[in-house]
Design a protein that fits this description.
The protein has 158 residues and is mainly beta. It has 1 helix and 12 strands. It has one domain (29-157): Sandwich (Hypothetical Protein Tm1070, Chain: A). Helix content is 13%, strand content 51%. Residues 14-18 and 20-25 have low confidence and may be disordered.
Amino acid sequence: MRQTPHFLIMRMTALFYLGLLLVTVPAARAASRGQTVYVPVYSHIYSGNLEKPFDLAVTLSIRNTDPQSPITLTHVEYYDSGGTLLTHYLRAPITLPPLATTRYVIKESDTAGGSGANFIVSWRSRIPVSPALIEAIMISTRSQQGISFTSRGTVISE
């Protein structure tokens, strides 16, 4: 059976859009019983030719994405650019109920972390759950200029 050029163009267009859909739809994350997550943060960034520091406030957001089960945070630690531990936030593990969120804030005036600061966050669950979403939001305003951006954590161990 011979296909017309119009039919072939429609078929190729449909395959193209199907390919785009498959590329842009994120894959479901596998269930986990716990992870350790590295989150890059910036207590300041540099601007201009003279690399002038622009101080930023940092909010670390830890979200339990599972609608049924709690997760337990076991470590939330803040490190500077040189890898030195600055703050250990948890004295004891804390439980996040299903779909709950907690946050930790580094004040804009606290520049100890530097431009290469990071958090290490560990969580666990007694059953496999949807993995936590852990990200940082950096923000600052000066005069009429404002800057804000996010950084998402990456799993370094299961």
